[in-house]
Specification:
two-stranded antiparallel ribbon, Rossmann fold, 7 strands, five-stranded parallel beta sheet, 3 domains, alpha/beta
């Protein structure tokens, strides 16, 4: 094998690159390094590199200690119109190697615990808000009760917490509630959903589950990738939204010029410009195009 063949073989086997997504990557990693609960939406047209992005984040998240549920031999974790709460529960448990439920949890078991936790989190948030708004003591122990120093009427707070508990207990499927409890137990956990088109019936439960995750404070992060239209209904529960636009043509041209510099014959400037212009609106083709060009040169095709 000639020296140049080693370079060409490396290009053929090269992982799909992440080009022009430095800002989005930095934002996603900042969420993970914060070690707090979050729901992150990745919005963009098909072909914008969202799946490639998730694969790269999966690698980096694992390197800093996160357990990741994204994909296995059966494919990516995806929500379709036919997906049910039981389906998503079983799939996430499979990907994270969590115990499989023998039967759906009863309304007074995990659902009740989750409802209590959400209610407690809501109480703390209300007290902190009141402390900032009315200048009350923000260092007061949140477990001490509402009290007159919070600036919130105790009756109102009690009704709010009762409503929060009833909301979670009544609207989250029992198995879903148990899944959230199990995720909290094995955190930090990153769940990656690559494609989210739930049915209207499942959408309500899924949205409320995401909201429950967002308020726990535990290091559980859900990243969901799809088009802007598909994710529109989840905007209210998102803690971060990353929008995937066209990649600047010059960044793609610089990438090709760097990784394909040793090709023989080399790419002409006009070829570089053409490939960069083609890939700017469909970054997903950058990896396959790199491999095709390498294979062509390896096989002696101009």
């Amino acid at each position: 094998m000639s020296p140049g063949s080693h370079t060409l073989q490396a290009l053929v086997e090269r992982p799909v690159p992440l080009v022009g997504r430095d800002y989005e990557f930095a934002r996603a990693m900042a969420v993970l390094r914060a070690r707090r609960s979050a729901v992150v939406l990745l919005e963009g047209r098909p072909g914008m590199g969202k799946s490639t992005f998730l694969r790269q984040i999966e690698v980096e998240a694992g390197a800093i200690g996160w357990r990741v549920a994204r994909a296995d031999a059966h494919g990516a974790l995806t929500v379709t119109p036919g997906t049910t709460p039981a389906d998503i529960d079983a799939r996430i448990r499979q990907l994270l190697d969590l115990p499989v439920l023998a039967q759906e949890a009863g309304p007074d078991s995990s659902t009740g615990k989750l409802a209590q936790f959400v209610a407690t989190s809501a109480a703390q948030a209300l007290k902190l808000t009141a402390a900032r708004r009315f200048g009350t003591d923000s260092d007061k122990d949140p477990e001490d009760g509402a009290g007159s120093g919070t600036g919130i009427d105790e009756g109102f707070l009690g009704r709010y917490l009762e409503g929060a508990a009833r909301w979670v207990g009544g609207l989250l499927p029992g198995g879903f509630a148990q899944l959230l409890e199990d995720l909290r137990a094995c955190a930090p956990v990153l769940v990656m959903v690559d494609g989210c088109r739930p049915s209207s019936q499942f959408s309500a439960a899924f949205t409320r589950a995401l909201l429950a995750i967002a308020v726990t404070g535990d290091p559980i992060v859900v990243m969901i990738a799809d088009t802007e239209d598909a994710l529109r209904g989840l905007g209210s529960v998102a803690t971060e939204t990353l929008r995937f636009h066209d990649v600047p043509e010059e960044e793609i041209r610089d990438y090709f010029a760097h990784v394909l510099a040793d090709l023989d014959p080399p790419l002409e400037p006009a070829e570089l410009a053409h490939y960069a212009q083609t890939a700017t609106r469909s970054p997903d083709i950058i990896g396959p195009l790199t491999r095709i060009l390498a294979v062509d040169r390896r096989d002696g095709r101009p």
